[in-house]
Each structure stands twice: as structure tokens, then as C-alpha cells.
Design a protein that fits this description.
By secondary structure, this protein is mainly alpha-helical. About 45% of the residues lie in helices and about 5% in strands. It has helices at about 5-15, 20-25, 30-40, 45-55; strands at about 80, 85. It has a two-stranded antiparallel sheet with strand order 1-2. It is globular.
């Protein structure tokens, strides 16, 4: 596993709205493998903080999410098109 891949997996694991199923689909690692990887790669305090944060989080498991597809977007968030931020009307 390259450093870049490892960094991306850790980043996805820290993200609140990225489910473990997305990591499995993209990198082939199931939830227990991600936990083992995080335990190995993070400092103990960082791992403990991450586990406490992820444990019981509904958005980290597709079956427990309240929405099925798409992603959350605030209605006040600006639209981005062609690398330019468009003005709200």
C-alpha cells in the first residue's frame, strides 16, 4: 500500500459522512481492517479519539443512514461551476 493510499484511507475514516462501505468499495478494506489500520498508523491518543468519535455514528454505516444517496448540502452553500463560485440570486 502506498503512502498516498494510506493517507486517503485515514482521511476517509476521519470524515463523518464517509461510510465504511465506501472505503471497502474503493480500497477493499472492511470495517475491522480499517480499525486495525488506524490502530497501527495513528498515535494511541489519536486512535482513541477516532474510535470514540466513530463508535455509534450513524453516518459511518450505510444501513443506518437516514438518506440513501447523494450528500448533505446546506441550502446556503454556494454553487461551484467551472472552478468559479457563482453568485446567489
Amino acid at each position: 500500500m502506498t503512502d498516498r493510499t494510506l493517507d486517503r484511507i485515514i482521511e476517509m475514516a476521519w470524515e463523518d459522512r464517509t461510510p465504511f462501505e465506501a472505503i471497502k468499495y474503493q480500497f477493499g478494506l472492511n470495517e475491522s481492517q480499517v480499525i486495525s489500520l488506524m490502530r497501527k498508523e495513528l498515535k494511541r491518543s489519536s486512535f482513541n479519539r477516532w474510535r470514540k468519535r466513530v463508535q455509534g455514528r450513524v453516518t459511518k454505516h450505510l444501513k443506518r443512514r437516514s438518506f440513501e444517496k447523494g450528500r448533505f448540502k446546506c441550502n446556503r452553500q454556494r454553487n461551484i461551476s467551472l472552478n468559479k463560485i457563482s453568485k446567489r440570486i
